[in-house]
Structures are given as structure tokens and as C-alpha cells.
Amino acid sequence: MTSLGRQDAVRRPRQKAEETRQDILATAEDLFRERGIGRCSVADIANELQMSPANVFKHFGSKAQLADAICDRHIHRMIDRFELLKDPAPAPEKLGIVVRRLMDAHLSDIQQNPYLFEMILMMSDSDLPSARHYKTLIDSLFVEVIQEGVEAGVYHCQSPEDVSSDVAAAFSAVLHPVLLARASADELHRRCEGLVNLVNAALQNALAK
Question: Which stretches of the chain drop beneath a pLDDT of 50?
Fold first, then answer.
């Protein structure tokens, strides 16, 4: 490095670790969206940020960890924008709203953000934090809808927390990324309506546990 280069490096303002981490995430997400995760290396991300690959690895131990963090950010944004619990609809109707909005959000990603959806597809069956976080968020959405239904007297179950996992599993046919990628939008919407009716019938049955 030249003397001038060393002076520039010294004068460059130092960022806090979290700021650098967020810059890496934002840049990596942009590059992954443009090229796909398979066509983008950590060196490409580092070059875009004018830093060394070692600095990227300091914050993310591998490209898989980086992709996992991007998926987790996307999951947060997707869930946060729904604001489902402010919907005044009764629980049986709201259950359908929850599932349709989640499904449509994934279908939108397939159309508009195919490379991002590719990452979600890769992470969906992993034991990485984003996959576990997604399951937790989905279960929590169903818990709150089921609890509302129980309190209103339209759903009958002893433990909304236990039942929510079964409900989430029932809707995996229209929410799991792998199954979404293999079906047409028309087929998924028909399947979704049928599942909503079946789950609502089960939750409204006095024998449901």
C-alpha cells in the first residue's frame, strides 16, 4: 500500500460492529437478489464494500450464515407488515386471512424476488436460526387466532399452543416453500380454501383438543 493509501485508510471513519454488520447484510442481499446466491461469493460482497473478505467472515462465519441472516430479516419484514391481529374479522375468517396472506407473500417472492426465494427454499428444511424462527412466528400467529376463537366461544380446544403446531402442519401444503414452488397459483388457492374449511371445521368441533 502506498503512503497515500495508508493515510486514507487511517482517515477512514471506523464504524461500529453492528453498523458494519448491517452494511454487509444489505449489500449481500442486493447482490444475492441480482445474481443468486450461487453466483455471488463472499469476495464479491467484500469488494462491493471495499473491505477484505476476512472482515466479512469476522461478522459471518460462512456464506450460509450470511444467507441465513438475510432470510431472517426477510421473515421479520414479511410478518411485520401483515398487522393481522388488528383485523376485526371473527376467528374463522381471520384464520383464512392469515394463511392467504402468508401464501400470497411467498408467491410474490417467487415472482418478484426469485433469488431471495431460492435462499428461503435452501434454508426451509435446515436447522439454521431463520428456519426455526420462521416456524416460531408461524406458530405464534396461529396461537393468537385460535386463542381469539376460544375466547369468542367459536373454537373448542384445551391448549391453543399445542393445537397451533398441528394447524401449522396442516397448512404446510400451501406455506412450505418446497410445496409452493411445485404447484400453480390456481391450484394453491383452491388447496388453501379447502384446508381453511377443514381446519375451521375441526376447531369448531366440540371434540377438538
Answer: 1-12, 208-209
| In contact, 102 and 84? CB cutoff 8 Å | no
Domain architecture of the chain: domains with CATH: 3-61 (1.10.10.60), 67-204 (1.10.357)
pTM for the structure as a whole: 0.71
Contact 200, 172 (CB under 8 A): no
Start-to-end Cα distance in the chain = 70
DSSP notation for the chain: --HHHHHHHHHSPPPPHHHHHHHHHHHHHHHHHHH-GGG--HHHHHHHHTS-HHHHHHH-SSHHHHHHHHHHHHHHHHHHTT-GGG--S-HHHHHHHHHHHHHHHHHHHHHH-HHHHHHHHHHTTS-SHHHHHHHHHHHHHHHHHHHHHHHHTS---S-HHHHHHHHHHHTHHHHSHHHHHTS-HHHHHHHHHHHHHHHHHHHHSTT--
Let me know: does 65 contact 109? Beta carbons within 8 Å: no
Q: What is the pLDDT of residues 81-121, one digit of tens each?
A: 665 556 678 999 999 998 998 888 888 877 877 777 777 76
State pLDDT tens for residues 14-33.
Answer: 668 889 999 999 999 899 88
**204: which residues sit within 8 A by CB, 6+ positions away?**
92, 154, 155, 156
